[in-house]
Amino acid sequence: MRVGEVCSRNVIIVKSDASVVEVAKLMRQNAVGDVVVVESRNQQQIPVGIITDRDIAVHVVAGEVDPQTIAVKDAMSFELVTVLEDDGVVETIALFRERKIRRVPVIDGQGVLVGILTIDDVIDLLAELLTDIAKLVAP
Description:
There is one protein chain. By secondary structure, the protein is an alpha/beta fold. It has a single domain (3-137), classed as CBS-domain (Roll). It contains five helices and six strands, in the order αβαββαβαββα. The protein has helices spanning 3-6, 20-30, 53-61, 89-99, 119-137; strands spanning 13-14, 34-41, 44-52, 83-84, 103-107, 113-118. The chain is globular and about 60 Å long.
């Protein structure tokens, strides 16, 4: 199965110059734990980073930094890992394990953001598959 079949296409995005407070409000309004940081290139959204609720808690709150004064670019994860929408889910699970990540932006062949795949998406998929298998073997 391809990542593009499983990922969420509703990605919350922000520019790198937004404040951490803006991002935290976006997370609360959309009930998400991450926001993808993008640059606009040729009117396309290109992912350049990701900021998570953990980044805010560990780097801003625990660091006693005023969230009003810090921009996303100063708190986000810079080593962005992405996957192509045509990549396999099984290989992406291995990538999650190898890189110790729980979410990954999904891009097309031109590097344009098309979705996000989270460990919760993978768990939902596995639950569906296990339910289907159980129905096959049930009397």
